[in-house]
């Protein structure tokens, strides 16, 4: 059989282009910098934040931040990992849209001292809107731990649908945790709900 007609399993999906700078009414979402390491370490040293994330170790230290930042700032990654900042340009969180197992996946976190101000809704909506303009036919997958109803509410108001439930290992909790899986289908983004 001709190898040229067999599907390649190592091919990445089409990419949305370089990580953009996105400005909203209150925020700037920008590519990460090595100088973000200290602010990231402060945020991700807080168990209230990391307990809701699957892939962040505890304890989290500056070297963990640098290990994550170096490939992203060196241009080795084509995924979008956007630092959330306010007018002072200090890193307060992250919105990422990256490829996992051949599918685009949304992840996000925010320093606890910025919770309940609508910042995450504004940041996620802006990132998804820009991504949808560049990749209009692409579904975006995500999910939340079952004990994170605020994050699930954010996703649902943006148009994500629940598609299943699984258990996901949480490094911070050092155990398997029930996880609600979601998807945002092409054309389903509801920006008016994010306000």
Please describe what this structure looks like.
The protein has an eight-stranded mixed sheet, with helices on both faces. The protein is of the alpha+beta class. The protein has one domain: Aminopeptidase (3-Layer(aba) Sandwich), CATH 3.40.630. It is 26% helix and 29% strand.
Give the helix level as a range of percent: 25-40%
Give the CATH topology: Aminopeptidase
What structural class results from the helix and strand content?
A: alpha+beta
Averaging pLDDT over every residue, what do you get? 91
How many alpha or pi helices?
5
Give the overall shape, derived from the CA principal axes.
globular
The neighbouring-strand order within the major sheet is: 1-2-3-4-5-6-8-7
Number of strands: 8
What Rg do the Cα atoms give?
17 Å
Question: Superfamily at the CATH H level?
Answer: Gcn5-related N-acetyltransferase (GNAT)
The topology string of helices and strands comes to: EEHHHEEEHEHEE
Low-pLDDT sequence parts: none
Instruction: Give a short account of the largest sheet.
Output: 8 strands, mixed
How many structural domains can be distinguished in the coordinates? 1
Domain N-acetyltransferase: 27-181
Pfam family, one: Acetyltransf_3
Protein name: RimJ/RimL family protein N-acetyltransferase
Organism: Rhizobium leucaenae
């Amino acid at each position: 059989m001709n190898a040229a007609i067999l599907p390649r399993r190592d091919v990445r999906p089409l990419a949305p282009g370089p990580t953009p700078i996105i400005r909203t009414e209150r925020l700037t979402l920008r590519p990460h910098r090595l100088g973000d390491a200290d602010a990231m370490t402060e945020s991700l040293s807080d168990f209230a934040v990391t307990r809701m994330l699957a892939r962040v170790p505890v304890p989290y230290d500056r070297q963990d931040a640098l290990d994550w930042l170096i490939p992203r700032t060196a241009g080795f990654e084509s995924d979008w990992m956007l630092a959330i900042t306010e007018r002072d340009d200090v890193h307060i969180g992250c919105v990422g849209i990256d490829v996992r197992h051949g599918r685009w996946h949304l992840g996000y976190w925010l320093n606890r001292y910025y919770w309940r101000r609508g910042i995450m809704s504004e940041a996620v909506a802006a990132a998804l809107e820009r991504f949808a303009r560049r990749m209009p036919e692409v579904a975006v997958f995500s999910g939340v731990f079952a004990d994170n109803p605020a994050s699930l509410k954010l996703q649902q108001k943006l148009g994500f649908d629940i598609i299943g439930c699984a258990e996901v290992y949480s490094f911070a909790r050092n155990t398997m945790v029930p996880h609600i899986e979601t998807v945002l289908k092409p054309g389903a983004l509801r920006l008016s709900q994010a306000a």
